[in-house]
Each structure stands twice: as structure tokens, then as C-alpha cells.
């Protein structure tokens, strides 16, 4: 027989042997090594099992055994090797002690995780983010409340944030792949994302500005502007008014105070007694009023020179600027 046929025959023989060993180990009676891969007796209640990025198969196997989800770490590794499934996917898995080992291995190798993709739009408040994550079953509201209360990471960008203030403003809007049942991990991912933007985009432009104040202004700009030109011009108006000692008169801060972003504001709303009511209180509101995107943050970091002190947005969404109160009043009569 030619050498080539011998090589093919040997290769096919090795495959047959591997398959035979796998079938023998899995389906052989309980008195044999097959019991290693059989389902465990006892509770069949699903458990959450996390595979973290960078974990080796040996570590995962040991963790599965420690969690009571498989009988043998060795059997788990052997099955993956013989079946050719040597790559496992990080994430949160719903597993049961009643699953036979092959099913556990196949679930983890296939990436059938309990993860969920969540998009956090620019300008969402912390409350809106929590509502979104709850709807996506990342966690229940009480778990998020507890996680936010206990979360105390040592991020450089928190140095300017008063200790008694929430994480509002720093939960960076983006699309995330989150683990169900892990609210703390969701919070950490959003803050880590902000940390990357801070290092690469914000800190180099910050200069002697106070980051927390920049984030407050950026949050106002995010809620008030739709285009980059308007983000820059509205930022300039806000800085001009602050420097002149004028009230900011930003309706979005009132909406934050009443937690309603849809209904038309009434006279009662605009006269509400709140430190967030910038129609009554001078200076910045106590905290950011949303979580702004990078474009609004950049505008707040580098406002253009401008003589404008007033602006309004007409019914078509176009913003009109004015240098004086008279010009602003004329714009109201003309566009509103």
C-alpha cells in the first residue's frame, strides 16, 4: 500500500479510536469511568456560573467541580479535548447539577451565555439606565440600588466628585454586552468605559478646569443641543452666563428635578423649589442631570469665544441665539 494511503488510514484510525473512547466513557455503565460524565444526583435547580475572560480550561473545570456542576474536572477537560471544543466563551451561564457533563461542556463551549446586549443612549439619566437594565433582566431595581450604594472604585476621574454625590454623569453611554444577574459588573463596565475616554480624550483637554463642573455643563448641553454646532454655542452661552452671574435658565434641569422628560412644563413646574431649578437658583445644579456623550463633553471642555447670552429652540428644532435680552425677546416673538 502506498505511503499516502498508510497516512490516511492511520489518521482515520486515530479519529475512530478517539470517538470510540468518547462514546465508551460517556455511555458505559456507572461502574466504569462513564460515571464521571454522568449527571449528578440531587438538586436540579439552575445555578449561575461565570466564566471570566482569560480563565484556562483547567481553572474552569475546577470551578465547575467546586460548584457541584460536574463530577470530575478531569472528565470535563477530557471531553473537551476529544470533542475538539478547546475554546470556551466568557460570560454568565445557567447550568444545572442535573445536566450530564457533555451538556455542561457543550453549553460553555458554544457560548450559550446568559449575557444580554444593552444600548444606553447619550443623555440617559441614572434612573433611565437602571430602568433599561432592569427591563433587560440584568438585575432587579433593588439590586442596582444596593450595588450603586456599595460601589466605591478608586478611579482617578472621581477625585473631583463630591463623596456624597451619585455616579450620575459618569455612566458612559454606549452598547454593552452585560452579564445577567451581575449589576456591579454592569456598573463597572460603564465606568471603565468612561475611564478610557477620560484618559484618551478628556484629561488631555481638561487643563485647570474642574472635571465635575465640566460634567455638569456637558450634561446640560447634552439635553439642550442636537448638533455639534449647537453643543458648542450653547456651551459658550452657559459659560458666559455663569461668568456674568446670571441664572442659567435651563429647562432641562427642571425636568430632572421633576423626573419627567416628555410633558410640557407648566408654570408650577418652572417655579418648583429645587436646587436643580436653574430658573430660580444661580450657578450650576448640584450634579450632572444625565450621562453625556463624548461630543457634549468635548464641547464643555473647549467652548468657543462668543458674545451670545441667550438661546431658544423653535418648533422645528432650530436654535436661535441672541446677545441681548431685547434680541432674545424679539426671537421669542418671531419663532415661538
Automatic annotation (TrEMBL):
Record-linked InterPro entries: MLTG-like (IPR003770)
Top-level class of the enzyme under EC nomenclature: lyase
Topology class, membrane: Single-pass membrane protein
Swiss-Prot/TrEMBL catalytic activity: a peptidoglycan chain = a peptidoglycan chain with N-acetyl-1,6-anhydromuramyl-[peptide] at the reducing end + a peptidoglycan chain with N-acetylglucosamine at the non-reducing end
Chief location bin: membrane
Family the entry assigns: Belongs to the transglycosylase MltG family.
Name of protein: Endolytic murein transglycosylase
Amino acid at each position: 500500500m502506498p505511503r499516502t494511503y498508510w497516512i490516511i488510514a492511520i489518521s482515520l484510525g486515530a479519529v475512530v479510536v478517539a470517538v470510540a473512547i468518547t462514546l465508551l466513557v460517556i455511555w458505559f455503565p456507572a461502574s466504569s469511568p462513564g460515571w464521571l460524565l454522568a449527571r449528578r444526583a440531587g438538586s436540579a435547580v439552575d445555578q449561575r456560573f461565570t466564566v471570566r475572560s482569560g480563565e484556562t480550561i483547567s481553572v474552569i473545570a475546577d470551578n465547575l467541580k467546586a460548584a457541584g456542576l460536574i463530577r470530575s474536572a478531569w472528565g470535563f477537560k477530557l471531553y473537551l479535548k476529544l470533542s475538539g471544543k478547546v475554546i470556551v466563551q466568557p460570560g454568565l451561564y445557567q447550568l444545572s447539577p442535573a445536566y450530564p457533563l457533555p451538556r455542561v461542556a457543550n453549553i460553555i463551549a458554544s457560548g450559550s451565555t446568559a449575557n444580554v446586549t444593552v444600548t444606553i443612549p447619550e443623555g440617559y439619566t441614572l434612573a433611565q439606565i437602571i430602568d433599561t437594565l432592569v427591563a433587560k433582566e440584568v438585575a432587579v431595581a433593588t439590586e442596582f440600588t444596593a450595588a450603586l450604594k456599595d460601589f466605591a472604585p478608586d478611579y482617578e476621574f472621581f477625585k473631583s466628585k463630591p463623596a456624597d454625590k451619585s455616579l450620575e454623569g459618569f455612566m458612559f453611554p454606549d452598547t454593552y454586552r452585560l452579564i445577567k444577574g451581575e449589576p456591579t459588573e454592569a456598573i463597572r463596565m460603564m465606568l471603565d468605559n468612561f475611564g478610557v475616554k477620560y484618559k484618551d480624550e478628556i484629561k488631555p483637554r481638561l487643563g485647570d478646569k474642574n472635571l465635575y463642573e465640566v460634567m455638569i455643563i456637558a450634561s446640560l448641553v447634552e439635553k439642550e443641543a442636537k448638533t455639534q454646532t449647537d453643543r458648542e454655542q450653547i456651551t459658550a452661552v452657559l459659560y458666559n452666563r455663569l461668568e456674568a452671574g446670571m441664572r442659567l435658565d435651563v429647562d432641562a434641569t427642571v425636568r430632572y428635578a421633576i423626573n419627567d422628560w416628555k410633558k410640557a412644563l407648566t408654570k408650577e413646574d418652572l417655579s418648583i423649589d429645587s436646587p436643580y431649578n436653574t430658573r430660580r437658583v444661580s450657578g450650576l445644579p448640584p450634579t450632572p442631570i444625565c450621562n453625556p456623550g463624548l461630543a457634549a463633553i468635548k464641547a464643555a471642555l473647549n467652548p468657543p469665544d462668543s458674545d451670545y447670552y441667550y438661546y431658544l429652540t423653535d418648533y422645528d428644532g432650530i436654535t436661535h441665539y441672541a446677545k441681548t435680552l431685547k434680541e432674545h425677546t424679539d426671537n421669542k416673538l418671531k419663532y415661538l
